[in-house]
Amino acid sequence: MAWIMLAVAGILEVVWAYAMKQSNGFTRLVPTLITFVTMAASFALLSVSMRTIPLGTAYTVWTGIGAVGAFVVGVAALGEQLNLARVCAALLIVCGLVLMKLSSAE
């Protein structure tokens, strides 16, 4: 269950990062509210998952999901640049996440 909560926390990190971008520096109310609500939920789920998942593993997986997710959303929804170097960087992050999960005692 902790891994599911951690995955949801990572997905919520992507949501709040996208909403923060859409808030235009916190000048738009709805995206600003979405940012803060999903940020709080993401932190709460991360915190609960850390009851059983080691700190280094949980934090690395959480930030990795956020980083790769934000990259995908940036390319898919915001028209950000997609090139071989950025794809390779994202794949390396995913490889690190898989290795972190496989090396965890939990």
UniProtKB/TrEMBL annotation:
<dbReference type="GO" id="GO:0005886">
    <property type="term" value="C:plasma membrane"/>
</dbReference>
<feature type="transmembrane region" description="Helical">
    <location>
        <begin position="27"/>
        <end position="46"/>
    </location>
</feature>
<feature type="transmembrane region" description="Helical">
    <location>
        <begin position="58"/>
        <end position="78"/>
    </location>
</feature>
<dbReference type="Pfam" id="PF00893">
    <property type="entry name" value="Multi_Drug_Res"/>
</dbReference>
<keyword id="KW-0813">Transport</keyword>
<dbReference type="InterPro" id="IPR045324">
    <property type="entry name" value="Small_multidrug_res"/>
</dbReference>
<dbReference type="GO" id="GO:0022857">
    <property type="term" value="F:transmembrane transporter activity"/>
</dbReference>
<keyword id="KW-0812">Transmembrane</keyword>
<keyword id="KW-0472">Membrane</keyword>
<dbReference type="InterPro" id="IPR037185">
    <property type="entry name" value="EmrE-like"/>
</dbReference>
<comment type="similarity">
    <text>Belongs to the drug/metabolite transporter (DMT) superfamily. Small multidrug resistance (SMR) (TC 2.A.7.1) family. Gdx/SugE subfamily.</text>
</comment>
<feature type="transmembrane region" description="Helical">
    <location>
        <begin position="84"/>
        <end position="102"/>
    </location>
</feature>
<dbReference type="InterPro" id="IPR000390">
    <property type="entry name" value="Small_drug/metabolite_transptr"/>
</dbReference>
<dbReference type="GO" id="GO:1990961">
    <property type="term" value="P:xenobiotic detoxification by transmembrane export across the plasma membrane"/>
</dbReference>
<protein>
    <recommendedName>
        <fullName>Guanidinium exporter</fullName>
    </recommendedName>
</protein>
<keyword id="KW-1003">Cell membrane</keyword>
<keyword id="KW-1133">Transmembrane helix</keyword>
